[in-house]
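Memo subject: From amino acid sequence to discrete backbone structure tokens
Action wanted: Derive the backbone structure tokens from the amino acid sequence.
How to read it: Take the token row as a discrete description of the fold.
Attached in line: The record itself begins immediately under this heading.
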Amino acid sequence: MPELPEVEITRRGLDAHLTGLTIADAVIRNGSLRWPIPKNLPKLLRGQTIRSLKRRAKYLLMDCGNGTLILHLGMSGSLRILPAGTPAEKHDHFDLILFNNTLMRLRDPRRFGAVLWHEGDPSQHPLLAGLGPEPLEKDFDARYLYQATRGRSVSIKQCIMDNHTVVGVGNIYANEALFRAGIKPQLSAGKLSLPRCTKLVAEIRATLAEAIKLGGSSLRNFVNTSGQPGYFQQNYWVYGRTGESCRRCGATIKQIKQGQRSSFYCGSCQK
């Protein structure tokens, strides 16, 4: 599933090709995504100029002047920039056609993605209104994380994957950041000291920044807007490495289940 780095890489790729351009048309081939694509969306988009493309958590927000196009990649989605007229394939569900003879195409084999429309402040959309701070912005700091974890018995891994605590720290990057911070994933969030919160915040930021630099992780379907995979998976310390030797101490990487998700950790390096 695309996580924050993959969505940010997609945003940057789209931004370079779309911002400032005018929309000629939109094509809905299959509107039955996680939430139905509004049937009147082509009418709303025709003739609108794309003013900006921002990211909030794992959502892409395209300011079209009269409203905001909200995009989500779901479990298997990708957004590509292609020449206008490129034949659609089976899982190509939505096209945004520009007047410069290019298009933006959503491919989503599992159809868990989203193409939604919102008029007014997009931060007030029901999917965005209750979200926590961005992990790469100043509002997410050690003091904030320390206060947010007081009295909480849930594991620290589940806590940082909760979008009400901090957005966009998905399973891959939660595992990797916790290893780098030396914190075991099953530790109760409320037991985290302020110094350990400081370390964890720093490693969440560093892990996400490195993943963005390396083009994200391409474990299944993810490709960037040019169709190229990411390479961060080559640098994993623990994720998906069950039974292998820890690259830092040589101990065996362990795997457990937490909240229906797999957690990977080194019992020697993480306490």
